[in-house]
Amino acid sequence: MTGIAPLSTGVIERIMRGEEVDKPVLQILGTKKITGGETDRLRLLISDGKFINSYSMLATQLNHLHAEGKLSEYTIVRVDKYITSVVNGKDAGKRVLIILELSVLNPGTEVGKKIGTPVSYTEEAAAQSKASTNNSSTATKPAKKADTKPSLYNNNNNNTLNQSLTAGLTHPISSLSPYQNKWVIKARVTAKGPMRTWSNAKGEGKLFSMDLMDESGEIRATAFREQAEKYYDIIEVDHVYYISKCQLKPANKQFTTLKNDYEMTLTGETQIQACEEDDNDIPEIKYDLVPISQLANLEARTSVDTIGICKEVGELQTFTSRTTNKEFKKRELTLVDSSNAAVS
């Protein structure tokens, strides 16, 4: 086994208890594809040599590693960044490990076998174990616990929000679904649209939308009528908030390009609280840059991020919309990048 990276023995127990572990080394013992929505999710069976954990998910941006065969059985990886989430439903109370970044240290073909004699992790199994976790090879720091603060933006009872913050429990955006009703996210507002007026057969009113982001992903949230009036002047772009009790529903891809199968609607029960502690763990914005030379391979109307140099600027043109009869202006730009391609 010369050259095989040693596992961080015992870290699964500590992670499942909510500790923050710095770059644990684990072994993959299996993968399972979970279909549904626009993007498949991957569930991992991982081991630290002492315990096995089946409550582990791979962030969708890492799916390519599985497709490339780099996460085969017995592969040893270093988890460079992760978050955990406590789930509801039939598995209520279970903590799920969501891997955001990892490095492959030894491919499965090189390792060739399961390391140690790990057993499935449960609190009972951990209690029976006499092995000390104090000598683990991975340095740890105590889990952050947010101070309980009164909500700034809701006069309702904030027990769900405050209890979650007191326990240090927040949910990653990528874990949210309409089948959950008790969750709190910690997210940065990356964009906020203007206040608009709508009118249809069901009535009329005002609305605005905002885009939220955390380490795991992003989601669109929309406020209507009273909620729009209540929150529009309060919510600020680039600020971080704790948010709870929104309604989740399948995303209308006609109005959002975010990579999430769901979107939020603020309700009368919604709770929003400003994050006043260190928020450096919440990214400001993410780009998934695509070379200009690859744009032709994408489907029409696909939203992409790209970067380039402006080579040409066209004349300003005016045109009238056929549907609204409104006048608009446009100008064509030509971008080039290091892939030796151009796009207008």
From TrEMBL:
Listed GO biological process terms: DNA recombination; DNA repair; DNA replication
One Pfam match: Rep-A_N
Residues annotated as domain Replication factor-A protein 1 N-terminal: 7-106
The keyword DNA-binding is annotated on this UniProt entry: yes
Record's compositionally biased regions (Low complexity): 126-141
InterPro entries per UniProt: NA-bd_OB-fold (IPR012340), NA-bd_OB_tRNA (IPR004365), Rep_factor-A_N (IPR007199), REPA_OB_2 (IPR031657), Rfa1 (IPR004591)
Region feature Disordered, mapped onto this chain: 126-155
Chain ranges of the Replication protein A OB domain: 292-343
Alphabetically ordered keywords of this record: DNA replication, DNA-binding, Metal-binding, Nucleus, Zinc, Zinc-finger
Principal location class: nucleus
One CC-aspect GO term: nucleus
Subunit structure: Component of the heterotrimeric canonical replication protein A complex (RPA).
Family the entry assigns: Belongs to the replication factor A protein 1 family.
Name of the protein in its database record: Replication protein A subunit
Organism: Bactrocera latifrons (Malaysian fruit fly)
Source organism phylogeny: Eukaryota, Metazoa, Ecdysozoa, Arthropoda, Hexapoda
Gene coding for it: RpA-70_4
